[in-house]
Known about the structure:
- The chain is an alpha+beta fold.
- The protein contains two helices and four strands.
- It has helices at 42-53, 66-78, and strands at 5-9, 16-19, 25-29, 36-41.
- Helix 1 (42-53) packs across helix 2.
Amino acid sequence: MSRTRTYRCLGCLDHTLTREFDTSHLSVTCPECESFERFVNEAVFQTFRGFEKSPPDELEWGRLDRTEKLVVAERLARTAKTLADFDVVDEPDVQPVE
Ligand SMILES: [Zn+2]
């Protein structure tokens, strides 16, 4: 039971689900906002929220849109990548993780 993971709705940023598997995100219909939403791993969301409060010096965080920010947060939280691996350019080359 201690290995459950929490996933947070990106529609309302309020509703959370727990699952016994660990993945970067789920896509399910949220019972709270009733839309089909991506639920992100709570570790990814915490990374995202931390940067929203305190943008990292290494990255022009404010130039990214929310999807791009979440991709960066997901890579940082779930892979060995660090901020040094990202470059913000006019057309960001970050791609959603499959
Ligand atoms: Zn929701």
